Amino acid sequence: MALIDRLMGLAPDGVTPDPQGKISVHEFAAACFEVAFGPRTVAEMKSYYTMSAEDATELDALIAKVTGTDAIKHRVIFMFEQVLILAESKVTGYTTPALVRARLGV
Fold it and tell me: What is the predicted pLDDT for the residue at 1?
């Protein structure tokens, strides 16, 4: 299973719903803020969400985008959250993990 699939609430096939593996988008965004500004590390985030190697690779790609000034970091994490909210709802253009990955640039 890959991280984007889990954030969308999908099984590894990218189609079948999987509420068991789902990661809350808002909680994920909060964890990203904690890594960018607070006391948490990427390793702690990976452990907390019991990430597979594939999940961890996608997380690393996302976290690598969170650079620059504090204002830019806030904007990037906010963008992640907004894209993932649209993906959760399967809004046109955000209906598949591939489309979401493309929008996030990972």
Answer: 62
Please list, in sequence order, all residues whose beta carbon lies within 8 angstroms of the beta carbon of residue 60, skipping any fewer than 6 positions away. 42
Euclidean distance between CA atoms 28 and 32, whole angstroms = 6
Tokens of 65: 């985008």
**pTM for the model:** 0.93
Domain boundaries, the chain: 3-104
Q: Any long-range contacts for 16-20 (C-beta under 8 Å, 24+ apart)?
A: none
State the distance between the two ends of the chain, measured CA to CA, in whole angstroms. 15
Rounded to an integer, the average pLDDT of 94-106 is 96
**Amino acid residing at 83:** V
Cα 12 to Cα 27, 36, 44, 73, 78, distances in angstroms: 21, 28, 23, 29, 25
